[in-house]
Amino acid sequence: MSVRTRIGSSLKSRTKSAMQAQKRRAWLLRVTRQRQGLLRSDAGVRQVSFDGEPLWGRVADGFTAAGAAADNLALVADALERAEISYFVVPGVSRTAWTLGVRESDREAFLKAMRELYAGTVVFAARPRPGGVSDFSLYADEVWPKSLSTAPVMRFGVVRLGPKGQVLGGPLLGCDVEFWQDGAEVLAGPDAEAELARVSPQASADVLADSLVAPRRNRISDVMPTSEQKSAKITVQGRDYPTFAPFTVTTVEDVTFPIDVVYTWVDGEDPELRAKRQKYKSDRSSTRTPSRRGCTTSRASRTTTCTSTTTCSSAAASPRSTSSTRTASPASRSRRSRSASASRTAVRPRPTRPARTCASC
Predict the structure, then answer these.
(1) CB within 8 A of 126, min separation 6: which ones?
(2) What is the pLDDT of residues 172-213, one digit of tens each?
């Protein structure tokens, strides 16, 4: 590649990046104006900062996590039922929030129904990611990022705020909408082998061809064959929602009874646990620290004990420097103090001092 070609490619790349940055700045300015207008028109809407990111939500009169998740589920279901779009509850990974499945072919109609029902409101849409969301947008925004509208999974809801602006229920309680694809279209697409490997051994190619395929994993199955798409319902806070019969099966992870108390349990014979416990136990019980070669210093009495195998000259000269050092008890010190006050010739007890280090050390 010639120098002229490299310079031309670099200029094109910089120009493209500059144009994208300019478009984003213009979009942010436009969105900011629209959201400021929403704040002025609705006293219940506030802007807050959460984990360093700006959020827009509504002040709630009361709050429970289950109630907020159910409300977010209902607002999405309202739009789907209004547009007469079929959907089903999916047993998602989250134990708090809800997930709905919608056919990919109904994406455009669903987004149009949501826009018609919630335009100009604080209802949000975002892309779920581990630990949070991205592309957070409001239905008060006239334009969204393209990556949001084409995402395989979208999250919708309303951020619940406390009276002082504290976030009670953030985007994590939003309702996820998964866009399920027809298996035949998946097999005809460019990623057929990768998708078939992902759902294996749940489904072979012939089963996948006559199934709905999830864009991500859930607690039951990522593939729903036509023969298993039997209607069922799930009741959430008094409202029935459609689903498939296999999605109503109770698994070993489901708790269907009230819990009074939880006891933590560990295997005391586990080698890894025993090693870890011994490590911390040794660190806590250690009351001696190494001093010089052959000697250790007690932290409590600040005396030095000689453990050298050689003859200790200072030990012979000063018995207090060895491990046989004796410390007067409180009662003994009291008696000696009384004797000292009765006779000036009495010897006062010497205070305990750190012993000398032996000469051999």
Answers:
(1) 133, 134, 135, 136, 137, 148, 154, 155, 171, 174
(2) 999 999 999 999 998 888 888 888 888 777 778 888 889 999
